[in-house]
Amino acid sequence: LVACNILTGIGTTLLIMYPVSYYVMDVNVCAPAMLVAVALAMSIDYSLFLLTRFNEERLDGRSITQSLEIALATQGHTIVVSGATLALCFTSMLVLPTSTITSMAAGAATAVLQSVLVSLSLTPALLLTMPRFFTADRMLGLTLDGTPFGTYRRASSGTVAQFGATIDRPTIIENPQPKKESIWAHVGRCSQRGAPVMFLFLALVMVPFAMALTRFSYVEDLTPLMQTTHPATKAFISISNIYGQDLTTPVQLLIMAPSQKAMASREWSLATCHMLQDLATKVTDRMHEEGHDYTMTTADFNGLMIFRGGCLADGLKFGVIDVMPAVHMYGMYDMVADLLSNRNQTATQVYVHCQVDLFSEVGEAWMRAVRASLPRPEVIRQPLGGHQDADSANYVPYGRWDDVEIGALHLYGMPLEQMDGAQYTLRRMPYVGLAIAAIVCIILGGSFGTALIPVRAVICIAWMLVVTFGASVMVYQLGYLEGLGIQALSPSSGQALFWISPSVAVAVLVGLGLDYDIFLMDSVMEHWQSGKDGKSAVVTSLDQAGTIISAAGVIMFLAFGALLASTTPVLNQIGFMLCVGVLLDCFVTTKVTIPCLMALVPDDANFWPLKQSATRELAIGREPSFGLEGEISRDCPRLSSRGREEPERSPRGAEVASSHPEIGRDHASSPQMTTSRRALPAHSRRAGR
What we know:
It is built from 24 helices and 15 strands. It is an alpha+beta fold. The protein starts with a helix and ends with a helix. The C terminus is likely disordered.
């Protein structure tokens, strides 16, 4: 059943993203791997959440229909809230201007939404279509019972087996074994007893990671996006080393002349050459002002108007010989002009050489200096007409020299795109973080109706993010695990994180942290509304859901761990962040941090403004039950030897059972005989109706 959900979720997501990549946006090569990992992880998580509650209700003796209704009313709510939160977190990344991030965010958001739809539609449909196949107690569940080809299996005592063939009839489990308290309940209770000490310990644990995070730096090179073992990557690196970055990642200056006639004139060519010579001097002065020992020469420009620092309008001399007439005679100038100019001969490009690595600190300072040194007249005439101020957001440099209009100037190239994308993205990440925090507060506050649960969730997520990103800096920047000899855990080029890695990982980590938080808090709210105090509700929830959260976390760790097996450095870094974050969420946040923080605050504050008085009465003696027809029964349930509620037989059912024990159980499980393992929260009861 889980495999069906996984295959359907991944398949439908790919079917949606294919036309998106073809008609809507460019999809980065890393996006499919991220998409599959998210779809795999969320499909498994949501399937476990739903099927676990379904099996719990079946073990309490309810029919398949009743169990499925309760599972959808409780865990369905958890899945919807979790999926909506995670999808919104991914969607918030679409405001960033980088196609790499937006394509990965769009694919991940689509994968989450498809996982939610598949879990809430395909899973119930399969359970109701082939109930015995998925709930039988035979080996691997392989049975045809409950179908036209099956048999009506009976237990040795003559009663219907535990998972009966009729989905609308609950069953009764005789002499169930008492359940031991899980280790996670003990961990939660210990965290509550020493809450102040545990809170101080968690704060101290965060300190070294926070200190490492202050040394965070990033690189903008293209090699982290490439597979290190691929022949194309090796060829790219070899060409860059031999011929320089002018061939692999060139920086170019596009000059858009006012007209074709102007561009063909000698005056325009000479004025443009003089402007470029002056630009080299301005860039050198600006670099020296910023403290960089860098001198740009006129020979760093090469185009139709300038070569080796000299103006081609004045001739191309080798010694005392001018070879420019021969260049024109044999058509070599026209051939170069066709390569460097557009078809209409109204624009041309000039190659701008950098003497250092473009992705280094000095290289970035040089690109900023060249851009800042371009002409900035008071009023700029745009190529399409009209005027614009030099300080406007859409500022376009426009060159003029010796009363000759040169035209609009555009400095472009892959290094500039990487630099601008990194600076723009990281500069706006605090705003994205605030938006995500607002999404968390709005969704959790609206879902649970409390004021403190969203605040506590933000604190837990912030702690997890600091530790996760601090650990990433230790591994990929400081090289703490380099001695292991594992390529995926070693620093890449530049001894720093690739700038896209934290930008993508933050949304995934927030969503995953909320996923387990919501699952646990849904159970806590359910127990609290049934009459338990806050501490007992947390311990009971950990007893019931702790193992499931741990199992889901381990599975998700393995799913994201596959990214560490990739030969692409950026995927290794993202995979490491997600693996660390998932482990912290599953084994620290839900087991230690949440019980600790809730123990430090009184119950009235934890669940404010909700009141427990309205629900406490339901837990004393007479507990409402979830009926097959959506009815609420006030009959006091009978408890089994393990403390679980056991359905009571109606008088008519008891009479039939006394005379016909082989069918007494079936008859006693009429719709009037309904019960509940524990009181459901208000939203669950509404969903059940």
